[in-house]
Design brief:
- The chain has a single domain, classed as Ferritin (Up-down Bundle), CATH 1.20.1260.
- α6 packs antiparallel against α7.
- A hairpin with a 5-residue loop joins β1 and β2.
- It is mainly alpha-helical.
- Strands 1-2 form a two-stranded antiparallel ribbon.
- The structure holds benzoyl coenzyme A.
């Protein structure tokens, strides 16, 4: 009922292929080298398809799970204007999920399968959304720094090789830049406010610093997929490069508010590379594999939404037409 899976019979048969036709592979890689976009009906290596499904699906899950920590603050926003902005932001994030699920569906996995894999723990979603939003300052920090980190990553990914993902990301980035502005406004307001407001902001930054470093994935030398994804221009910057770009853009903006990061070793070297203490990659592994402080709660909420919304999806299901072609 949601979108369309564009897997031809031939492609479906090829899904377990490990050795590709060398001529087709060469033609595909030449297209990528020329900067052409790959579209759903085009020939693509099975591994390219699988990697894209994995990454876009994880991204889509991150959007809908990512709406939860902020969503819990809608009823507790400090004033009417902040509440309006937060409602709109949360709604946008769910919309991003819709766009991304549609983009992933063009590769042959249905939305139902993706959502099932989120709920049964087969698919991952971003580490950052497994931490609690304890105070209103967390909402400011998510809006400014989590969205800031996401923009760094998404602007880069939007220049990639798979057409539907790139087009979805272009639209997402426009909306994210508004989110960033409201997050920045919120952070500056707290930083220039009362002693208590500055204290809750500092506390939130202290708690989000490590998850934000983790957001860009493991260091390049530990990254399982980067080499392949960069060869096929799905990723146009490595995890370490994206992390460095984020630190370069955002650390000075926090320091200028006289707010600190909880890392005495955080500094920019003369070669432009930021140095920081090791952000405990064991914690990262634990959190992305279900052992973070809020993983169980996030999945429980999604399960509830899935079950409570089933009757609506069934009511909308046309008996004659199960899938429509997605716009992504
Ligand atoms: N969290 O080989 P690697 C938002 C996994 S939502 C969890 O380097 P890759 C927002 C990785 O999947 C925006 N898992 O991976 C929403 C792999 O595990 P598997 C979210 C992570 O793909 C609402 C393993 O670690 N953005 O902003 O080459 C409100 C090895 O990693 C993470 C995206 O989803 C992580 N942080 O590179 C507010 C971006 N990092 O699959 C805001 C799209 C790594 O082998 N994704 N892993 O089991 C990407 O750009 C890339 O997938 C990454 C990782 C750069 C994140």
């Amino acid at each position: 009922m949601y979108g369309s899976t564009n897997l031809s019979e031939e492609d479906a048969k090829r899904m377990n292929t490990t050795v590709e036709d060398p001529e087709k592979l060469e033609a595909f890689e030449s297209r990528i080298a020329r900067g052409e976009k790959i579209e759903p009906q085009d020939w693509m290596p099975v591994e390219y398809r699988k990697q894209l499904i994995r990454m876009i699906e994880q991204h889509a899950h991150s959007e809908i799970v990512g709406a939860l920590p902020e969503g819990t603050w809608i009823t507790r926003a400090p004033n009417f204007r902040r509440k309006l902005a937060l409602i709109a932001k949360v709604q946008d994030e769910i919309g991003h999920g819709q766009l991304l699920y549609s983009a992933a569906e063009t590769l042959g996995k249905t939305r139902e399968e993706m959502l099932n894999d989120l709920l049964n723990g087969k698919s991952k979603y971003s580490n950052v959304f497994n931490y609690p939003a304890k105070t209103w300052a967390d909402i400011a920090v998510i809006g400014f720094l989590v969205d800031g980190a996401a923009i760094v990553n998404q602007v880069i990914n939007s220049k990639g090789s798979y057409g539907p993902y790139c087009r979805a990301l272009e639209r997402i980035c426009y909306e994210e830049s508004f989110h960033l502005k409201q997050g920045h406004d919120n952070v500056v307001y707290l930083a220039t406010g009362t002693k208590h407001q500055r204290a809750i902001l500092q506390d939130a930054i202290n708690r989000w610093y490590v998850p934000l470093l983790h957001f860009f994935g493991p260091p390049d030398k530990m990254s399982a997929h980067s080499e392949k994804l960069m060869k096929w221009k799905v990723k146009l910057a490595s995890n370490d490069d994206m992390r460095n770009q984020f630190l370069d853009q955002y650390v000075p903006k926090i320091w200028e508010l006289d707010i600190t990061f909880p890392d005495p070793n955080l500094k920019k070297n003369n070669d432009g590379i930021w140095e920081f203490s090791d952000p405990d990659w064991n914690e990262f592994k634990r959190v992305i594999n279900g052992g973070g402080p809020c993983n169980a709660e996030r999945i429980a909420v999604r399960k509830f939404a899935e079950e409570a919304g089933r009757w609506v999806r069934q009511a909308l299901m046309s008996p004659t037409e199960k899938y429509v072609v997605p716009l992504a």
